[in-house]
Each structure stands twice: as C-alpha cells, then as structure tokens.
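Closing statement on the beta-D-glucopyranose sub-project.
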Amino acid sequence: MTVTEPTALTLDEKAALTSGANFWWTKEAGGVAAVRVSDGPHGLRWTDTDAPSAVARSAPSTCFPPAAGLAQSWDPALAGRVGVALGRECRMRNVDVLLGPGINIKRSPLGGRNFEYFSEDPLLTAAMATGWVRGLQSQGVGASLKHFAANNAEHDRMRASSDVDPRALREIYLRAFQQVIQDAAPWTVMCSYNRLNGVLVSQNHFLLTQVLREEWGYDGLVVSDWGAVADRGAAVAAGCDLAMPSPGPDSGAELAAAARAGAVSEADLDRAVARLADLSRKAADGRAAWASREPGPGYDVDAHHALAWEAATRSVVLLKNDPVGDRGPVLPLSASESLAVIGVFAATPRYQGGGSSHVTPTRVDSPLEALTAQAGAVTYAAGFTVDGSGPDEALVAGAVAAARAADAAVLFLGLDAKQESEGFDRTTIDLPAEQVQLAAAVAAVNPRTVAVLSHGGVLRLAPLTAVVPAILDGALLGQAVGSALADVLLGAVNPSGRLAETVPVRIEDTAAFLNFPSEHSHVRYGEGIYVGYRWHDARDLPVEYAFGHGLAYTSFGYSGLSLAAVADGIEARVTVTNTGQRPGREVVQVYAGLPGSSVARPPRVLAGFAPVDLAPGQSQEVTITVRQADLAYWDRRVDRFVVEGGTYAVAVGASSRDLRLTGHVTLTGDGVRIPLTLNSTIIETLADPVAGPLVKEAFSTLAGGGEQDAAEALGVDLLSLIGSSPIGRMVSFSGGAVTREQIEQLLAAANAAAG
Ligand code: BGC
C-alpha cells in the first residue's frame, strides 16, 4: 500500500488517523496502514481483546526482570540483549510497538509504579533504557518511552499536577528522557496522565512541542497514555499526535468538525498525520526486514528463558553477608548443607508487578523447586500467609521447627501482588510485621539464616538487618526467579547486582516525605533536585543501604586513579583488582561534585559507571568517561543547561557511600554572562570586568564615608548590607548624586564590552 502525503488526505481521514481504532491498533486511512502496539514492557503482553480481564490472560511470552530488577544489573549491554529478545517476540506476533520502557524517576519509595521504573538516578535510568531501546528497535520494533513526564505517583494520577521547578524538571525528571531520545531515537514517546505545573500533559505545548520537538529535535510520534486525552483538539495542537485507545466512534468526526470550524488548525493535524504515516512506514519496514531475515515460525523459548535467567542472576543484590561463628560469611550456602526453605514466596514466587505490564510467562522457576533440585536435604515451611490475616502461630512454629533441624534457613520474604501495583501508591515501606517476626523467630534458632526479598518498591530493612546475618535482594526478577536465586544462594553465580535506589532507614528520611502524595490534585516537588541519594547525601542522613551498594562472594581493591579533562568531559582511569578467591564482577562507579558551586548542588552525583569482570587476583584498568553534559545544571536565567567552570571533586568507588579514591579535575565550563540591567545587583555589577571597577570608584567617591561609617556602626560590611540591592536603586541611595542615565550608560558600556 502506498502512503499518501498527509496533504492529499481528506480532513475526515486526517482526523480519523489521530486516534486509535481500538485498544491496540491505530487506524488505517488514506493509504496509511494501521500499526499494532502492545503492552509489556518486560515481556510481551499480547492480547486480542480490550477486556480488562484480559490483563491476566495474555498469550505466554518470556517474562524478563521488570525495570526495578533489571536496573540492579547496572548493565546496559544486558538490557540491550533483553531488548533484542523482546523485539523478536514482538515480531513473531506482528507487534510493531512495545509500550515501554517506563523511565520515570523514583521520586518517593511509595510510588505505586516504581517497579516499572529503573532508578532514582537519571544517568543510570538513561543508560539502561538506551540499551533496552536500541536492542528492541534493532529488531524493527519501536519503543514507547513512557510516561512523559513527571508522572511519579499513582494517586489521583489522571488529574494531579506535578508542580516542579525548572531545575528539578530539567536535571531530574526530563534528563533521562532527553538522553534516551538523543541516544536511541525511540519511535514513539508516550505522554503521561498527570498535569505538569497545572497543564494536562497531553495538552501541554511546552512539554510536547517546545521541549520535545524544538529543543531536543525529536521527530518521532507522541502517543497519549491510554485515556489521557481530555480534549482532542487541544492535544493535537499541543503536539500529541495519537490519542489511544479509541476515544469512541464519533470522536474523529468531532475533531474534523472542529477543524472545519477553525477551532483546530489543519496544519497541526497535518503534522500529526505525517508522524503517523512515518510510524506506519517504520513498522512496514520492520516487518519486511524481519520477513526477509527470519522466516521461521517462532522464537527459541528456551534461549529466551536462559537470557531471563542471566538477567535475573545479574540483578540480585547481596545486601549483607556477615560471618557466623568461625565459618565465615553465611553465603554462599553449600549444596551439602540441609536447608529449611521458609516462606510462601519460595513456592509461589513474586517476580513481576501488577497492572498493564503484567505478562503471562512461558514458565516460572520456583525457588523451592530449584533449591530442592540442587541442594541436599530441603524441608519447606510456609511460615506466613499473604492474606493479611497477620501472624499464624502454627505456621511460625512449623518454620521454627524446620529451621532448628537444618544447617541453614532461607527465608523468602517480600510483598504480595496486592500490596503494590499500577493504580495506587503504597502507604508504607514496611515489610509485613508477621514476616519480620518470623525472621526473628527463625534466626533465634538458626544463626545461619538468610533472607531473600521479592518486592517492586523499596522496603524498610532495618528490622530485618537487625536479626539476620545475610540478605539477598531479588527485587522482581522475572520468570527465572527461582533458578537465579538458587544459583546465587548456592554460589554457582557470584552476585554482582547493585542497588538502583537508596534503602532509607525510615520513610520519614526520604526526600518527598512531606510532599507525597498529591493534595487536592497538586503535588509539590518541594525537594527540588534533591531526589534519592542526592537528598540523603546533602542532608548527611544515614541510610540503611546506599545507592549503588552490593556485595559479592569476593572483594575488590581500587588503585591508581587518574583524572583528565578531555574534549567533552572527564576521563577517569582506575585499576580494579579482584582481591578474593572467586571470579566476580565489580560495578565501578564514578561520582562527581563541585565544591563551592555557585548553584545549589548535592555533594556528588553519579557521573559514570562500568561493570568489569575479573578472575581472582586479576587487575584491570577501567576507563570511564564522564560526559560534560552530565555535570551541567539548568540555569533558569538563560533557560539552558550550563557546565559550570571550576574544580570538580571526582570519586570512584563501589557505591555512593563507599568511595575508595578521590581526585580533582578542573573544567573551563561554559560561562554564562547575563546582560547587566538596572535590576542587576550591586554585587553582580561589581563582578563585571568593565562595570565593576567603575562602580567601585563611584562608591568610594559617593559614599563619602557616611554609609561605610553607618555600616561599621551596625557591625557589618557595607557590601553585605547593600550588595544585593539592584544597581538602579543607587539613584535613591546616592540621594540623586548618581543619575539613572549615568548607570544606564555604565551598563551599556559593560554589555557592549562583553559582546
Ligand atoms: C498505562 C500504560 C499502558 C497503557 C496501555 C495505561 O494505563 O499507564 O503504561 O501502556 O495503559 O495498557
């Protein structure tokens, strides 16, 4: 079918094209072929019906670790391979666009959809999502970067306004979107449900056109989140090209009528239609390339399961591994030990989140079965229920008895699907009390007790940390959860995951605590740029487990840090040595800060990272390039990112709180000159190379000592007293001795000299 140019389409055809045919298909009109989209994104949720009940009945597909789990791998190349596999599964079912990845920043640990998002940090988020999108799109299947933007809570999600200041918006909430768009060119971007600073995102011209198109140069399609559009005409005018799903049979005609009446511009419609035609072309090319390359009937289900296993093993974080008695650290367990496997999640694992991303796996490895197959003697006890009925004495007694009789106890704890899902936020980060009590009771009879956690959002772990010597954090690991955990527990795999989100000591310590969730449909992002570890570090708050933390069954040493300013950033070289007995992977992290910065900043931010695999005793020099752009702050005076010149403190280490080596490197920076006006302060004017000396001179003659004497009498320095006054006010401060014209001439000369 030939695609007609948008201008050749009738108005009705154009209007029709800008909304879906149903839940999963765009419309076909005027020679533009329909496109098939599908949910996921950590698996393909393929269903041919719109019925909500179909959420749980999609066709089987490989369930990879959801973003909260996969992010813990800190491995963008692995995310890329997962993307490739997802692309293949999509192509097998003729799906043109997979609706993901979700890349919103985890602003509060209570965010109900945090399991679908990667991290509290934009750089890590962008790196993982870029790998994923590139992998997916290499198979001729488009991504949909979602949910754009500042959609960080579920409460009142279709009305609440995220009230965010420009720095936080640019530096935290838009940064990963900008990066992925520039580095991976996703076919589509999904605009979110919420409002941003009062304006519905689907109708937000600033976001969808000014930022996305004009500033970032994005030329793909903007699709609405499902049901996010309230006013079709306003959405098209703002830059939302496609309203999904179908807004009803009359909607196209209504939009066409609005265009005829002049309420919607035909040029706006043309733009949207051109993007739909472009998406349709990409989809057709993707299908054609696939058909010529891969004529076979299906994908290799076993190979994809093996990849799901690999991704899961890489995503497990060893939070704690204390020695018990004289036998050294509890983990790894030995296959010859007898194990008490306790907790319902051992038999019925929790491995993905709930809501639109829920997929039907091709199979599920249960931890209990995997451990039973690999370890010597295994006894199982449920230990607790997840029906909310509280502690069950008989179940606790059974678990305690099993633990007492075994060499080691493995507790599978976590959150049930009912406790976290799309659609609502959590109200607590506590593990259910009965699980903490069970852990204490089990550890009291068996000191070699390991806790294994399954959950989408962060948990408060202080009570658990206090009673068990070892904790493995599985977050959500996808369908290979059981075999992956068993392999880590028994040492076949050396854990290498790192936390992508801070584990706070208390929810009260977290950045958004006082401003979450929304109230009367507004949520104030009062913490500004201080999200996640940025907040904890700036406030010097203790954390339970730091961002970037993760242990291994080996240890790593750092030496020989060298730093150099390079063309567009900083090159950090460091030698990492595996100082332990097992092969392992270290995730080398680079953090950068600018002491004495002219703008508010956290002490340090993640500026680069690299996983490195090392044999026992092996050393390797690792080079990490920090992109200058990642050090930039958003300067609201000039509305752009600015790299501040100065001496940056660069630290390299194993987590945001385990910094092994530190150095300094000086960057020239961009330099920002704000033209001087009558509203520039005396201090700003004094700092100017041309105006400064003249103002200084004028001060000494004009003040005639009187103001200085008065300031001294007050015990302050004159500049501290009046330095923040606009220079224009000198007219009145000088009693008219300095005229407005004189100041204007001075400022004009300074501005002209600055060019
Ligand atoms: C979710 C999206 C999803 C869409 C389609 C919405 O409710 O927010 O993430 O892709 O539904 O199911």
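The domain at 556-667 is CATH 2.60.40.10 (Immunoglobulin-like). With this model delivered, the sub-project is considered complete and its resources will be redirected to Aim 3.
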